[in-house]
Amino acid sequence: MELCYRNNPKSLFRNYAKLVTWFANTQLGRDYLKHNNFFIPSEKLGLLLPNGYIRKDTNHGQMVVTTRPVYAPRLYPALQAIEGIQTTAQETKELLLWYLGLRHQPLWATNKLYSTLVTYPDANPESTSVDGYVQRSNGGVYETWDVLRAGAGTGKDDSGNITYSWTQASNGDPDKYLTIVRTIILFDTSAFPANGTLTVGANTVTVTRQNTYTTEDHSLVLSTPAANTSLANADYGQTGTTKQATDVSNPGTFTLNTTGEGNLAIPDELGAGITKFAIKMTKDNDNTAPTWETVKDYGCIFYTADVGSDKPTLTLTYTIPAGFFVMF
Questions:
Q1: Contact 161, 148 (CB under 8 A)
Q2: Most buried one in 26, 29, 74, 210, CB count within 10 A?
Q3: Cα separation of 298 and 157, whole Å?
Q4: Burial class for 236, CB neighbours closer than 10 Å (0-12, 13-18, 19+)
Q5: What pLDDT score was predicted for residue 321?
Q6: Helix, strand, coil % (nearest 5) of the chain?
């Protein structure tokens, strides 16, 4: 907590000197800031400090300070919450009073404090997050649906332009299939603001289709690949089944449900990291074999992060709440 900001260029009391001094010169501020027997005088202040004030009149000035940051604890959490929000001087005053619990939320604040975080997987070569596909295709050997679905992965691609949520029926061997492909998509969500409050029901994962084989429902689930920046064959078995959004027909945009929102790796007291999803055909996810037809492809192809504007996108919406406190 700040005591003196003489040699601290990042001081919030320095950055907001006019704001806190204005507040201290109001009756509301004087009443709020009084600390035990240490009061704000009724005379106009020239400057409020973390540990005192400078009283100034036309003839002389007087500095009154203590060895403790008597005013910093009262104002610092609100100054932290205001930091970085683009507002006018008058709006900043209104925000300060709101964060201190002295006024209702300003009418303009709902839209002003509403924001979005848009993030993508890295294109190859990856530095924080990967996307691509993992598959099982057992050397051209046709397998039953259960064996193919639960078997070990045999291939992957994390550097190409396309990925799949797809399966392929066998060529003439009834009720057997050749391939299942699953997409894994990771997003770096560490830029989500630590004082942000996620807006429930307004958060999405979007992918862009390149090709559609059949109209199929697809499921968004979690994944646990061994690495954040590359895929391995074994990651075929590292996709969950719990749905993080309502199924969509041929992705599309998935709107996260409360489970999906709860699994976002966004900042809290434990920090943040990488949010890890997978997309599978719902028949694959729910273990319902598609109706068998000779040489039939089911599902679709969509683009990876290596295709610029068509890359997978995670969009999170949030507000900056009142009453945000940081522990020291």
A1: no
A2: 29
A3: 19
A4: buried
A5: 56
A6: 20, 30, 45
106 burial via Cβ count (<10 Å: 0-12, 13-18, 19+): middle
Looking at the DSSP bridge assignments, the partners of residue 198 are 318
| Residue 268: half-sphere exposure toward Cβ, Cα within 13 Å | 8
pLDDT in tens, 79-100: 877 776 777 889 889 888 988 8
Tokens (6 digits) for 138: 């057992």
232: its two tokens = 């391995």
**Cβ–Cβ < 8 Å for 166, 218:** no
* Residues 218 and 165 sit within 8 Å (Cβ to Cβ): yes
Q: Measuring CA to CA, how many Å separate 120 from each of 139, 218, 267, 306? A: 33, 20, 17, 10
Residue 78 has pLDDT above 50, yes or no: yes
Report the chain's terminal Cα–Cα distance, integer Å.
7
Higher pLDDT, 190 or 319: 190
The structure's pTM equals 0.67
pLDDT tens-place string over residues 2-48: 666 666 666 888 889 999 999 999 999 988 888 666 778 888 898 98
Find out whether 133 and 180 touch, Cβ atoms under 8 Å. no
Evaluate whether 96 touches 78 at the Cβ level (below 8 Å). yes
Paired with 177 in beta bridges are: 143, 169
Residue with structure tokens 């050749």? 178
- What's the rounded Cα separation, in Å, for the pair 42 and 200? 46
The alpha carbons of the chain give a radius of gyration, in whole angstroms, of 28
- CB-based contact 318:120 (threshold 8 Å): no
Angle at 320 between CA 314 and CA 323, to 5 degrees: 145
Per-residue pLDDT at 210 = 93
DSSP 147-180: HHHHS---EEESSSSEEEEEEEE-SS-TTEEEEE
Tell me how far apart the alpha carbons of residues 242 and 220 are, in angstroms, rounded to a whole number.
8
